[in-house]
C-alpha cells in the first residue's frame, strides 16, 4: 500500500506538468493568432492602407504585368559627408529600387548611381538624380525614379547612416570579402578610412566606411557595387537563425532612424519574401550607362534602351515602348470616336 501511495503522487505531478505545458503552448498560439488577426483587421478594415502610387508621367500603369509587383524606393541621406547645413535639404547618397513579388518570393534590387543624368519634374535642364530629394523631398524623388524607369513606385524608405551603423552592430556585424585595400583620409572632415584587402568581419563603423568609400578609379560606380554587395550580405545575416530573435529589436531601432510609408501588412509580406534571401535568391544589378564629363561635371548617362535592359535582366516589369505606343493608339482611336 505504501508503495502504491508513493507512486500515485508522481504520476499526478507528471500529468499536471504535461497539461500545463499544453496549456502554455495553446495560449501562446492563441495570442499569436489574435495579435496578427488584430493587425490584419486594423490594416485592412479599420485603417486600410492608402498607397499613393507614383507612376511615370505618361503612364496610368494599368498593365497586368505591373500589378503583382511591389516596388520600394530606398534612399540613403547624405548626412555624413554633405556640405549642407543641419537644417538644409540634403542630397541622397544611395538610391535603390527594391522590387518584390510576395506571391513568388521573388526579390530584385536595382541600384541607381547618384550622378545619373535626369530631368527633374518641373525642371527644364538636366541635373543629377540625387538632387531630387533635396529639391522636392520624397515626392519628387519617387516621381523622378518612376519617370526614369517607367515603373510604379509604391512605397519609400528613407534612412540615415547613423541608423545603418547601429543596425549592423545590433546583428553582430557582417562578414564580407574586401576586394582591395581601401584608404582615404580627410583631416578637415575628421575622416579616416583604412580597410584591408581580404575577408573582414565588419562592425557598424567599418561597414559605413566600406559602403561610402569612392576614392578609387570607379568612383561612385564602385561605391554602388559595394553597397549592393553589402546589402545582400547583411540581409543574409539579418534573416539567419541566430538573428531571428532580434527582428523585433531591429524593427524598433529602424523606427528611430528610418522614415517610411510602408504599412504593417506590406512589411510582413516583404519580410516573408526576404526570408529566402541568398546569393541565388536575389537578383541585383546597377542601372546601365556610361560616364560623361564633357561639361566639366561628371554624370552617369543612360538611355531608354539601357534602362529597359537593366530592368529586363532583373525581371522587373516595366512599361516598355510597345505599351506606350499601344496606349497612345488607344487614346487617338478614342478621340476619333468622340469626334464622330
Brief digest:
By secondary structure, this protein is an alpha+beta fold.
Helix/strand structural class: alpha+beta
Uncertain runs:
10-15
Radius of gyration: 25 Å
Tell me the total number of β-strands.
14
Number of H- or I-type helical stretches: 9
Q: Helicity level, as a percent range?
A: 40-55%
The average pLDDT score comes to 77
* Beta-strand residue fraction: 15-25%
The backbone outline, from C-alpha atoms, is globular
Q: Give the topology string: H per helix, E per strand.
A: HEEEEEHEHEEEEHHHEHEEEHH
* N/C terminus separation: 106 Å
Q: How is the largest sheet built, in terms of strand order?
A: 11-6-1-2-3-12
Mind summarizing the main beta sheet? 6 strands, mixed
Descriptive overview:
The chain has 340 residues and is α+β, with helices and mostly antiparallel strands. 45% of the residues lie in helices and 20% in strands. It has nine helices and 14 strands. The strands form five sheets. The chain has a six-stranded mixed β-sheet with strand order 11-6-1-2-3-12, with helices on both faces. It has a two-stranded antiparallel ribbon with strand order 4-5. A hairpin with a 6-residue loop joins strand 4 (117-119) and strand 5. Helix 3 packs antiparallel against helix 6 (247-257). The protein starts with a helix and ends with a helix.
What's the topology here?
Blueprint: H1 2-46, E1 70-77, E2 92-101, E3 106-111, E4 117-119, E5 126-128, H2 131-149, E6 155-159, H3 161-170, E7 174-178, E8 182-186, E9 191-195, E10 198-202, H4 204-212, H5 219-238, H6 247-257, E11 258-260, H7 264-274, E12 282-286, E13 290-292, E14 299-301, H8 304-313, H9 321-339
Parallel strand pairs: 1-6, 3-12
Antiparallel strand pairs: 1-2, 2-3, 4-5, 6-11, 7-10, 8-9, 13-14
Helix pairs in contact: 3-4, 3-6, 4-5
Amino acid at each position: 500500500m505504501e508503495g502504491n501511495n508513493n507512486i500515485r503522487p508522481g504520476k499526478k505531478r507528471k500529468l499536471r506538468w504535461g497539461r500545463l505545458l499544453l496549456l502554455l503552448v495553446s495560449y501562446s498560439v492563441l495570442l499569436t493568432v489574435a495579435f496578427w488577426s488584430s493587425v490584419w483587421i486594423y490594416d485592412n478594415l479599420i485603417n486600410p492602407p492608402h498607397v499613393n502610387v507614383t507612376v511615370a508621367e505618361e503612364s496610368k500603369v494599368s498593365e497586368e504585368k505591373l500589378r503583382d509587383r511591389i516596388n520600394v524606393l530606398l534612399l540613403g541621406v547624405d548626412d555624413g559627408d554633405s556640405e549642407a547645413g543641419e537644417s538644409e535639404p540634403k542630397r541622397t547618397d544611395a538610391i535603390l529600387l527594391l522590387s518584390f513579388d510576395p506571391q513568388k518570393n521573388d526579390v530584385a534590387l536595382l541600384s541607381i548611381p547618384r550622378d545619373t543624368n535626369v530631368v527633374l519634374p518641373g525642371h527644364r535642364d538636366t541635373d543629377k538624380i540625387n538632387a531630387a530629394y533635396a529639391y522636392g523631398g520624397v515626392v519628387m524623388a519617387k516621381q523622378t525614379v518612376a519617370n526614369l524607369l517607367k515603373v510604379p513606385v509604391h512605397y519609400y524608405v528613407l534612412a540615415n547612416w547613423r541608423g545603418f551603423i547601429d543596425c549592423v552592430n545590433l546583428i553582430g556585424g557582417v562578414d564580407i570579402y574586401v576586394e582591395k585595400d581601401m584608404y582615404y583620409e580627410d583631416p578637415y572632415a575628421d575622416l579616416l578610412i583604412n580597410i584591408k584587402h581580404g575577408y573582414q568581419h565588419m562592425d557598424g563603423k567599418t561597414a559605413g566606411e566600406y559602403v561610402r568609400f569612392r576614392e578609387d578609379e570607379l568612383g561612385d560606380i564602385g561605391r554602388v557595387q559595394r553597397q549592393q554587395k553589402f546589402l545582400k550580405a547583411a540581409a543574409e545575416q539579418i534573416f539567419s537563425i541566430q538573428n531571428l530573435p532580434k527582428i523585433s529589436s531591429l524593427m524598433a531601432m529602424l523606427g528611430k532612424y528610418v522614415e517610411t510609408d510602408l504599412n504593417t501588412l506590406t512589411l510582413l509580406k516583404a519580410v516573408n519574401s526576404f526570408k529566402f534571401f541568398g546569393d541565388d535568391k536575389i537578383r541585383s544589378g546597377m542601372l546601365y550607362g556610361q560616364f560623361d564629363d564633357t561639361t566639366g561635371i561628371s554624370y552617369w548617362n543612360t538611355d531608354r534602351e539601357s534602362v529597359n535592359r537593366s530592368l529586363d535582366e532583373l525581371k522587373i516589369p516595366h512599361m516598355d515602348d510597345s505599351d506606350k505606343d499601344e496606349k497612345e493608339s488607344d487614346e487617338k482611336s478614342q478621340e476619333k470616336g468622340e469626334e464622330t
